[in-house]
């Protein structure tokens, strides 16, 4: 009994410390907001990776004195740094776009609550809005139509996945819209096999899922015998169906986080072909946004070249000669014009920069068609690298 009482006391102390840690995290976040305010007037970049690296090295050294593992310290403070950078970017974007500062936003996305697009919406707007009005859709086209008609403020669209590649249907829709890409977010996709009741893998006879999860989990599915595949319009639809059935022979492929919204539990985890499986989403709206100069920006454009040899190479050389990094190139057929391609390019540059403006003028001369789909902040925050010597010494 005394041991149990001692354990309770220890847990009480841990609870008190956890509360203090939360308060300290909140204080630190408030200070980083003050840093953003100072950078707003000085036009200094949000990130200073040399300072971040020096900070981590110092913390690793101090952590060693306290008996803390270097990788443990690094992991914690890389997360803190990422949060700081994203919060500063969100603040600076609000200053750059005062006309869109509203506490409530409306967003259309594929599926319903629990879908990967739903989770991406909530993650993206967690720093940008107090309330989200959600509109689930059955197709990408429906999402675009709702935004174009002004029924919702934004549309969230998956654009590419590290396992299954580009989502061609979205690229094709972007050819025919006047909407602008105003944001992006990359989310880890952690596919699980979810069920509504306690069961075992050998009892599963039917698996429901959207087409993308099926393709991303093909290796796992190929190993299963006698299982019927049922395609659904979205992951959320699939999860809702499995919940309603309450059948030990059916399962759904989805995220554990999304499944919890439907009272589903994970029968099998990490079933995707690739351990590192991420989907990049883009956010579209009727009006473009201004990207603050302190924030790394990405610009997406589409262009069509002539059918002469080397036409695309000539365009890429313009980017190279102007020192602009291209991080994505995708080709799609132009509807109604057999054997002609439309090229989608993502470049790491702010549309307001003179360099990119000059580049676009040069490209206009040598292309048949060119259009900017949007300029928006780069959301992915690469972890600050720590010298190997610092980790080894610690």
Automatic annotation (TrEMBL):
UniProt binding sites for substrate: 11, 28, 39, 48, 52, 84, 88
Keyword Lipid metabolism included in the entry's annotation:
no
Tell me which InterPro entries the record gives.
Answer: ACT-like_dom_sf (IPR045865), ACT_dom (IPR002912), Chor_mutase/pphenate_deHydtase (IPR008242), Chorismate_II_sf (IPR036263), CM_dom_sf (IPR036979), CM_II_prokaryot (IPR002701), CM_P_1 (IPR010952), Preph_deHydtase (IPR001086)
Record's keyword terms, sorted: Amino-acid biosynthesis, Aromatic amino acid biosynthesis, Cytoplasm, Isomerase, Lyase, Multifunctional enzyme, Phenylalanine biosynthesis
| Record GO terms (molecular function) | chorismate mutase activity; prephenate dehydratase activity
Q: Which SMART domains match?
A: CM_2 (SM00830)
Limits of the Chorismate mutase domain: 1-92
Q: Which reaction does it catalyse?
A: prephenate + H(+) = 3-phenylpyruvate + CO2 + H2O; chorismate = prephenate
Q: Name one GO biological process term.
A: chorismate metabolic process
For this record, an example GO cellular component is:
cytoplasm
Q: In which pathway does it act?
A: Amino-acid biosynthesis; L-phenylalanine biosynthesis; phenylpyruvate from prephenate: step 1/1; Metabolic intermediate biosynthesis; prephenate biosynthesis; prephenate from chorismate: step 1/1
Q: Where is this site: Essential for prephenate dehydratase activity?
A: 279
**In the Enzyme Commission scheme, what number(s) does this protein have?**
4.2.1.51, 5.4.99.5
Residues in Prephenate dehydratase domain copies: 106-286
Tell me which residues make up the ACT domain: 300-377
Cell location:
Cytoplasm
Q: Where are the transmembrane segments?
A: none
Q: Cite the Pfam families for this sequence.
A: CM_2 (PF01817), PDT (PF00800)
The domain of life for this entry's organism is Bacteria
Q: What does this protein do?
A: Catalyzes the Claisen rearrangement of chorismate to prephenate and the decarboxylation/dehydration of prephenate to phenylpyruvate.
**What is the protein name stated in its UniProt record?**
Bifunctional chorismate mutase/prephenate dehydratase
């Amino acid at each position: 009994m005394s041991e149990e009482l001692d354990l309770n006391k220890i847990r009480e102390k841990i609870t008190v410390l956890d509360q203090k840690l939360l308060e300290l995290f909140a204080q630190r976040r408030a200070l980083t907001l003050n840093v953003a305010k100072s950078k707003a007037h000085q036009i200094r970049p949000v990130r200073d990776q040399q300072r971040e690296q020096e900070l981590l090295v110092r913390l690793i050294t101090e952590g060693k004195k306290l008996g803390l593992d270097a990788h443990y310290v690094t992991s914690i403070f890389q997360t803190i740094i990422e949060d700081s950078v994203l919060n500063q970017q969100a603040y600076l974007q609000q200053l750059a776009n005062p006309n869109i500062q509203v506490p409530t936003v409306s967003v259309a996305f594929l599926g319903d609550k629990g879908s990967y697009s739903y989770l991406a919406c909530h993650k993206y707007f967690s720093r940008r809005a107090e309330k989200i009005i959600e509109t689930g859709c059955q197709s990408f086209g429906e999402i675009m139509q709702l935004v174009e008609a002004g029924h919702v403020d934004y549309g969230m669209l998956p654009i590419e996945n590290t396992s299954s590649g580009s989502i061609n249907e979205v690229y094709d829709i972007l050819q025919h819209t006047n909407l602008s890409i105003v944001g992006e977010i990359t989310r880890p996709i952690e596919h699980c096999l979810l069920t509504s009741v306690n069961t075992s893998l050998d009892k599963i006879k039917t698996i429901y899922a959207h087409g993308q999860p099926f393709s991303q989990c093909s290796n796992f599915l190929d190993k299963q015998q006698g299982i019927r595949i049922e395609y659904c319009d979205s992951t959320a639809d699939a999860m809702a169906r499995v919940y309603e059935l309450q059948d030990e022979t059916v399962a759904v492929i989805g995220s554990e986080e999304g499944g919890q919204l439907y009272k589903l539990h994970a029968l099998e985890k990490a079933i995707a072909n690739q351990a590192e499986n991420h989907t990049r989403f883009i956010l579209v709206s009727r009006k473009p946004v201004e990207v603050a100069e302190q924030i790394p920006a990405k610009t997406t454009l589409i262009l069509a070249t002539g059918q002469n040899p080397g036409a695309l190479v000539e365009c890429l050389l313009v980017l190279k000669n102007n020192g602009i990094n291209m991080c994505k190139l995708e080709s799609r057929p132009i509807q109604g014009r057999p054997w002609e391609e439309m090229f989608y390019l993502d470049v790491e540059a702010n549309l307001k920069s003179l360099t990119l403006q000059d580049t676009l003028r040069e490209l206009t001369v040598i292309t048949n068609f060119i259009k900017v789909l949007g300029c928006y902040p780069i959301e992915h925050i690469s972890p600050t690298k720590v010298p190997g010597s610092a980790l080894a010494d610690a």
